[in-house]
Hints:
Structural class: mainly beta
Amino acid sequence: MFELLPxxxxxxxxxxxxxxxxxxxxxxxxxxxxxxxxxEYWACQAGWAFSAxxxxxxxxxxxxxxxxxGRTERDVDGLASVRVLRHDRAPTxxxxxxVVLQDVDLFGYPAAEVLAALETDRHPAVRFRxxxxxxxLEAGLLAM
Length: 144
């Protein structure tokens, strides 16, 4: 189970650790590498990025982010963003591995039900993207 912790980061399954905002690329890769092969990734405005696939899910991890307008108050050193995406771009059911936010399985139920359950507790640093099939396709966390 992956667990999104706004303000903190992402808890990895099987005791692999926590991807904490501000951690170094090396430490983040080391934690993820205990679960899956880590692959370099390119992302605009990120000093480093990598991806990993795990049981039907893909992690995209970004760090040392520079604001596109060059405003230094928006720059983030270390781990700045984590996204969890489903491989299947048209999911019709739950993912093999739960992705949880506040005890709600984000990829386990239709998006409307998930968003309704989270509406009162939604954190501004959490982002979602739905698939046309009605299930969530992506959940992301930003350092705030």
